[in-house]
Amino acid sequence: MVAKNAFYAQSGGVTAVINATACAVIETARQHPDKIGKVLAGRNGIIGALTEDLIDTSLESAADIAALRHTPGGAFGSCRYKLKGMDQHRAQYERLIEVFKAHDIGYFFYNGGNDSMDTAWKVSQIGEQLGYPVVCVGIPKTVDNDLPITDNCPGFGSVAKYVATSIREAAFDVASMAKTSTKIFVMEVMGRHAGWITAACGLAAEKEGDGPHLLLFPEVPFDEAAFLARVKQCVEKYDHCVIGVSEGLLNKEGQLMAEAGGKDAFGHSQLGGVGQVIAQLVKERLGYKYHWALADYLQRSARHIASATDVEQAYAVGKAAVELALAGRNAVMPAILRTSDTHYRWEIGTANLKDVANVEKMMPKAFITADGFGITDACRRYLSPLIEGELPPPYRNGLPDYVRLSNQGVPRRLPEYAV
């Protein structure tokens, strides 16, 4: 058997641990030189495949590849680009085959979330529909934690740890100043449709009076009167109120409360600023002085406070993806399966891409308190193990020491192609 090359790419919003997955894919592939030649990474995701902009990872040292395990961001660049269906844009798939043939690619690994698994699923059909054999494996990643089948998504545990830590620390600050200054602190976190990250903020409140005192989920339509009454109650009781809110918060009419008006490349509404909307509402209705914060990219890039569990799982799914491909498993995705809640244990299973693509896993009703403003004990049991453990990066001159790969391109063999 002649060793085929593998294509690997990162897609969608990157995370603190997606490079740990990349590390696993490359290191595992290097352990099987008889079956996998080189791992060629797509520069900026699937766009790199379409434009034949490929990176030769074999030129990177073992030490630099290993350093990806503690480096945030996307080492090869990511993208928000969704392939259309074969019937709509057959030329795109024919172009992929041209590139795969030109570079002897027999394995395709796509590392991303919901839309990315849709792309992986579509690419997996190339062999059957266009007669080019390629083994395609999707690799889970999304801070939103909304992929189905897998118990949780690599990237989420570290975001959860960051937001829970940040809102706890901010709560101590606000409590210190509440008598004569700020009484309200609002932190806006990611989560377009699913409130997993918002729920993670709730881990910071372990006893009576701890912040956050209210959580606003995208699954629960915003009730202004109930919200303001609860804020007033908290201030009267604790002298301050700390609030975690999802960027995807909806009003009672089902409209986003903070839609910037634009769309991203996946067709999703550009969000941001709901934290300010909520804070100003409190000021206007109740008169309390406030501060608000937008965690934004900070929450998903904070490798310095990554969850050790998350790093381990991110590496595990990358390793499993290569092993599945070597076993000839096409159109699948490695999934994290929880085997024990009491003493947290997990293993890697397998999901079919067709069952994952474009499916979002929302917060179960049983995870949100009856009043809609908090998390239940069941939710806490689910979330707590995912933020456990610390695995800080090495430091140099007082700052995290991250790696930048050389990312040397492979010589092009085909005519230019515009996307």
Describe it for me?
The protein is an alpha/beta fold. The protein has two domains: 4-142 and 304-359 and 389-400, Rossmann fold; 156-300, Phosphofructokinase domain (Rossmann fold). The protein has helices at 18-30, 46-50, 62-67, 90-102, 114-124, 126-130, 156-177, 196-201, 224-238, 274-286, 296-301, 308-326, 353-356, 377-383; strands at 4-10, 36-42, 54-56, 105-112, 135-140, 184-189, 214-216, 241-246, 259-263, 269-271, 290-294, 332-340, 345-352, 395-396, 399-400. It has a five-stranded mixed sheet with strand order 3-2-1-4-5, sandwiched between helices. Strands 7-8-6-11 form a four-stranded parallel sheet, with helices on both faces. Mean pLDDT is 95; it is low at 260-266.
